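Cast an eye over my tokenised protein here and flag anything odd:

===
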Amino acid sequence: MIGEKNQGNERFPISPEDASGTESYQSDQIESSEVLESDSPEDVVEQIEATRKKIDSIKQGPSTDFSNGESLSRKISDYQSRYLPDYLKKEKSLVSNLFLDLWSGSVRFELRNKENIPESGPFVVVCNHFGNGDVQALLKTFKDFNPHPIIGKSIWWKNSFFARSFLKAIKAIPVQESLSNLSKEEKYAAKERQGIVGKKVFQEISAQEDRGGLRVDTDFVRQSVAVLSRGDAMCLFPEGLWLQPQSLTQEKPEMKQAYRGLELVASQYEKLTGKQLPILPTSFFEESGRGKILKVGEAVTFDENNSELNNTDWLMTQIAQMLPENNRGYYKNSI
């Protein structure tokens, strides 16, 4: 969830220097005396040739040849050092792993199409968000890939010290919530379904968006790119609607219009690494007589989208295809 509705890459306020982790390039000046330091004709010829190569190099700009991997590796390492908070730089403790196993193991579900799970990261697991244990199911299924769940900043991260401590322990990444894809009537209905904390958060977000929208959560984008660049997995629910702990009723189990924050993450990941970001579409739903189902689709990248849909809607349509027809909601007519 990124603060403004249907925002594209052109509105992402990060300079190319920030996005790539590189410093601006400044060439050294070449003095004519460099070529005239020797009386030897052979030395003069060698110096002229060396100077010519230096001039050509400056005209071409900094080297982008990462064939040996050293320069690219250094650039990625610098990016991680710059943007990862301390808790994401550390590995999970034994206690954290124990709590995570207990929490994720509390949900029983059937895993389908396990063969589609990649052998290694990085990748982003994208899923519909009906609640009812979807976060736990993803963390359990992808536990071998150091998964980072993306969670709401206002309702989870900021409101409880204990919740924030737990989320840091399981290496979650917070993101600013948004309600901008909802109509005024839908916002009101969603707020009324919440408890005391939820009502307050919904009201604050709505007020900010009514005043002109929320700023892009650059911390979320940068932290996501940094953990992905070291080979981790990330678990994301682009619909962005949540069921906070005091929710009085559950959301109707059908898909909502997704927010496009993943497009920003994928764009910045490509700028940093030169590679497309692998994305794993998944669906989580209940099937009559069988219980909860987690279905894993084949990995895709945004450059495979040759439809008229934006990248986010194209991806969510693939998830909708893995859901029962009555759960497809906003994307039922895109299939």
